Amino acid sequence: MRSAFVYDAVRTPFGKYGGGLAGVRPDDLAAHVLRAVVDRSPGLDLSLIDEVVLGNANGAGEDNRNVARMAVLLAGLPVTIPGSTVNRLCGSGLDAVMTASRSIETGDFSVALAGGVESMTRAPWVLPKPGRPFPPADLTAVSSALGWRLVNPRMPAEWTISLGEANELLGEEFAISRDRQDEYAVRSHRLASAAWEAGFYDDHVLPVPGTDLAPDEGVRPEAAVETLATLPPAFRPGGTITAGNASPLSDGAAAILLGDEEAAVAIGRDPIARIVSRAAVACLPQRFGYAPVDAANLALKRAGLTWSDVEAVELNEAFAVQSLACVDAWDIDPQIVNTRGGAIAIGHPLGASGGRILATLVRVLRERGGRHGVAAICIGVGQGLAVVVENVSR
Questions:
Q1: Among the options 189, 204, 283, 378, which is catalytic?
Q2: Which of 75, 129, 197, 379 could form a disulfide with 91 if both were Cys (CB 3.0 to 4.6 A apart)?
Q3: Catalytic residue among 189, 204, 348, 372
Q4: 326 counts as catalytic
Q5: What's the CA gap between 30 and 16, in Å, rounded?
Q6: What is the DSSP string of 174-240?
Q7: Residue 262 belongs to some domain of the structure
Q8: Residues 254 and 205 sit within 8 Å (Cβ to Cβ)
Q9: CATH code at 381?
Q10: 194 part of a folded domain
Q11: Which residues does 150 contact at the CB level (< 8 Å), separation at least 6?
């Protein structure tokens, strides 16, 4: 078995719903990051790229018809490069990296591009197709931006509750207070703002042509617990989850350049990290927020490591409550988690978030001189993914 390495990673700034990237199609966002990541390795013969694998959670609008292949063509890459789109909802971008890295390890690929894209702003409203012409009753248009839609009535009701209600239940189970969630959210904003001010994101977050968006649009350096405390509950009366302590609807894209060890010559640069292990787990759909716990534990077991070996963690912050539940379960120092901010501040464009957390993790390890790190993400309908990486400069 070969090893799979990360050679480079880029992403767009993440835009708010209806914000700075609202006018850009998702296939164009994906094409932008693909073109950008290969242009950063000018010596790379593009014909050597074996495949592009992108994650995308929607696929119902302009990202239909295999957005990875569409992005290959729109990016001006050789038409001989195949493209494959994977859908594991919020974990799609990380799943794409996992898929490509496995193919590198088996020898099927030598060089690959992976990542993901999502425009939640441009996700369409959909109508069920009538079972017969001229239906006598009204049909309801359903937003495809997020969450359950066109639910199969055979599904148990407890499985199909809203994502927010599912995490209200998680908060009750682990007695995670509203105050603690708001404090976690403020931390996310302050760390993301500090990272942008320090230039941490400058070398790999690339503005999208035709837009004015530079830093991530949702970061609020002025965020304060006192302000968040005034926001109403979003999912149930008297609940603890608000728009302030949950990730927002977002737009964005990310791309990772992967290869085997021999690819360093073709790419013209040294690798920056090695994919050590991967894991996917499943649980009850309403407990999806807790799934990263088992995913990360399994990935570490497969790597022959323990939490004492881990020096950095990037956990996608779908909600503050589930992030806190996961960190508590791992019994790690919370200060090594999301040290450059998380999705509550930065945003969560579903298909792109896995690429973002992996790219951030690799750069945090290199900046701090750490060796091993974990990227983990929860996924609606009860799944979780995790990847262990090694800083090869160590």
A1: 378
A2: 379
A3: 348
A4: no
A5: 17
A6: TT--HHHHHHHHHHHHHHHHHHHHHTTTTTTB-PPTT----S-TT--TT--HHHHTTSPPSSSTT-S
A7: yes
A8: no
A9: 3.40.47.10
A10: no
A11: 126, 128, 142
- What distance in Å separates the CA atoms of residue 166 and residue 177, rounded to the nearest whole number? 15
Beta bridge partners of 385: 280, 377
Query: Mutual orientation of helices 291-303 and 320-330 as an angle, nearest 10°?
Result: 40
Q: What would you report as the CA-atom Rg of the chain, rounded to the nearest whole angstrom?
A: 20
Are the beta carbons of 384 and 376 closer than 8 angstroms? yes
Two tokens, residue 180: 């603690």
pLDDT (tens digit per residue) in 319-352: 999 999 999 999 899 999 999 999 999 999 999 9
For every residue of 12-39, DSSP letters joined together read: PPPEETTSTTTTS-HHHHHHHHHHHHHH
Closest among 63, 57, 61, 69 to 113, alpha carbons compared: 69
Residue 193 lies in a domain: no
| Residues near 133 by beta carbon (within 8 Å), at least 6 away in sequence | none
Rounded-to-integer distance, Cα 83 and Cα 3, Å: 22
Model confidence pLDDT, tens digit, residues 142-156: 999 999 989 999 999
User: pLDDT digits over 193-211, tens only?
Assistant: 999 999 999 999 999 999 9
370-386: pLDDT as tens digits: 999 999 999 999 999 99
Tokens of 292: 């990263």
343 assigned to some structural domain: yes
- Domain containing residue 258: 4-123+248-389
| Per-residue tokens: 1 | 């078995």
Catalytic residue among 90, 189, 204, 326: 90
Residue 372 and residue 394: Cα distance in Å, rounded? Answer: 9
CB 223 within 8 A of CB 146: no
Number of structural domains in the chain: 1
Helix (H) / strand (E) containing 379: strand 372-379
Our answer to whether residue 348 is catalytic in this structure is: yes
pLDDT-derived band at 132 (thresholds 50, 70, 90) equals confident
